[in-house]
Every structure is written in structure tokens, then in C-alpha cells.
Amino acid sequence: MSKKKLDVEIGVEAAVIGVVSSLKDYKLAWKINQVFKIELIMDEDLVISMANNSRIVVSNYCYQTDFMQINLIKNKGMDKAKATYLVPELPQIDYFMLITGEEFFGSVKETVSRLKEVEGISFVQLIDINKLKSKDNFIF
């Protein structure tokens, strides 16, 4: 009997913003809360299974309403022995701000420009998630 393989591509419908900052995750979340008048709070660490059968644990801050969710996720894993990244093709990015739902707070471009003004953030970029090899890592 022959075996058949079903390949299903799961789409991720979200705005992903890459943030470069030397701030600790809790300090960055606090500054973002001040700018956007939201309450990013520390959530359970995300444990993500990677394609090469390894796992990565990253910190996660979350803000949620009925119509939208914002996650501030650290790119670098918590494993001190070796450097592992949520998105290995973007190791220079320290954090990802993932915005899902119907009601983005303002436009995404406006969000990027407001993040650029936050003290302690040195670079902000809107990332096209469909061009990432590891886009499946954002499904959790």
C-alpha cells in the first residue's frame, strides 16, 4: 500500500514588528504600556517545537481584548548553553511584537513610528511574516 503525505500550510494573519532593544523584557513591556496605554503582562513562557525536533522556550508578555491580542515575544531562547532563536533567520532582532485580531490599535505603520520614539529601542521594523522560513513558529 502506498503512503500519501498531506502538506497543509497554515496561514498566520498577524502584524509582526521586529524590535531591537537592549532593555530587559519587563522594562520594554512597561515602556510600551506607557506609550500605548495598554497592559502587557507577563504570561507563561512559550515552549515552541522547532522543525528540527528541538524546543525553544521564550518569554511572553500579553495584552488581550475581545477583538485583538498583542504579544511581546523574546526572539532569543532562555537556554544559556546555546543560542537558539524563535526566528533563526533574524538573530539581530531582540523582540517581536505580534498583533492579531480585528482591531489593531491604530494603523500598523503608526504603531511602528510610535515604537521608534520609545527610549531604549534602537530599531523597529515591520516584518513580512510570509517571507520568513520559520513563520510557523508564530503559531502557538
Name of the top-level CATH class: Alpha Beta
Question: How many beta-strand elements?
Answer: 8
Helix percent reads: 10-25%
Question: What gross morphology would you assign?
Answer: globular
The fold-level CATH name is TATA-Binding Protein
Overview of the structural elements:
The chain is α+β, with helices and mostly antiparallel strands. 15% of the residues lie in helices and 31% in strands. The chain has one domain: 2-Layer Sandwich (TATA-Binding Protein). It is built from 2 helices and 8 strands; from the N terminus they run E-H-E-E-E-E-E-E-H-E. The strands form 2 sheets. It has a 6-stranded antiparallel β-sheet, with helices on one face. A two-stranded antiparallel ribbon has the order 3-4.
List the helices and strands and how they pair.
Blueprint: E1 15-21, H1 25-36, E2 41-42, E3 46-49, E4 55-58, E5 60-64, E6 68-74, E7 95-101, H2 108-116, E8 121-127
Antiparallel strand pairs: 1-7, 1-8, 2-5, 3-4, 5-6, 6-7
At a glance:
The protein is α+β, with helices and mostly antiparallel strands and 140 residues long. Helices cover 15% and strands 31% of the residues. The strands form 2 sheets. Strands 2-5-6-7-1-8 form a 6-stranded antiparallel beta sheet, covered by helices on one side. The chain has a two-stranded antiparallel ribbon with strand order 3-4.
